[in-house]
Automatic annotation (TrEMBL):
It comes from the Eukaryota. The keyword Cytoplasm does not apply. This is ARM repeat superfamily protein. Keywords: Ubl conjugation pathway. PANTHER family: U BOX DOMAIN-CONTAINING, U-BOX DOMAIN-CONTAINING PROTEIN 4. It comes from Zea mays.
Length: 249
């Protein structure tokens, strides 16, 4: 028998109704769905939590319920729709400091990068991945995790090159956060992945005034030396290697 879709996943709810649903005890069965090995139940639960996570009053309650580690587990092994909903729910929840710490503790960087690699760079999911990364990369352990992932920095640079305008601005923010934390450590990593062409193009198309300063600051961080002529070739070689690896897996 097919499981029923939880009401929050299928209704256009106001903030007050979302609070009432959470107060009525809806989170407990949703957490049970997240723990299930049934991908359909996981998908229903992530859709419902995505809807509920848009309310400022429910965000801390969802975080305190223990939902965040379960959402990250779905991000690692759920079906494509569930993964997309998880990213958006985590982004919504991350605006609360305690929730951001819980996301950090769940080690989300590897599955976020895997999702970026496997999806369309201009998708809404890529936008939210980069927006979430922009917040997470303020923490050293996430910067280390990103640079330890094969093709991790490149995945963000590719959103800078090929993403939607919003996604590209979040990619700039993520890369800038890295440079501001330790310029000498991260500048060459970003430069070697070929960020310059995307930055130059974005200076023309960036939405003013929100995104333009970040683009200019990041450009100043990583363009203090001339590009090695071989960097573009090395970047393409690395991109080809991890794309082949992704296909094999």
């Amino acid at each position: 028998m097919e499981a029923p879709v939880p009401a929050p996943a299928t209704m256009n709810l106001g903030a007050r109704n979302k609070t009432k649903i959470v107060d009525a005890g809806a989170l407990e069965p949703l957490l049970g769905y997240l723990r299930s090995s049934d991908p359909n139940l996981q998908e229903y639960a992530t859709a419902a939590l995505l809807t509920l996570s848009t309310s400022s009053t429910t965000k801390p309650v969802i975080g305190a319920s223990g939902a965040i580690p379960l959402l990250v587990e779905v991000l690692k092994g759920g079906n494509p729709q569930a993964k997309n909903d998880v990213v958006m729910a985590l982004y919504n929840l991350s605006t609360i400091a305690d929730n951001l710490q819980a996301i950090l503790s769940a080690q989300p960087i590897p599955p976020l990068i895997e999702l970026l690699k496997g999806g369309k760079r201009s998708s809404k999911t890529a936008d939210k991945c980069c927006a979430l990364l922009e917040s997470l990369l303020a923490f050293d352990q996430c910067r280390v995790a990103l640079t330890s992932e094969e093709g991790g920095v490149l995945a963000v640079v590719e959103v800078l090159e090929e993403g939607s305008l919003q996604g590209r601005e979040h990619a700039v923010g993520a890369l800038l956060t890295m440079c501001e934390s330790d310029r000498s450590r991260y500048r060459d990593l970003i430069l070697n992945e070929g960020a310059i062409p995307g930055l130059l193009e974005l200076t023309v198309h960036c939405r003013a005034p929100e995104g333009a300063p970040n683009v200019l600051v990041l450009s100043s961080f990583i363009t203090t030396s001339l590009l090695d002529p071989d960097r573009r070739r090395r970047r393409l070689d690395r991109r080809q290697r991890w794309r082949v690896t992704s296909v094999m897996h």
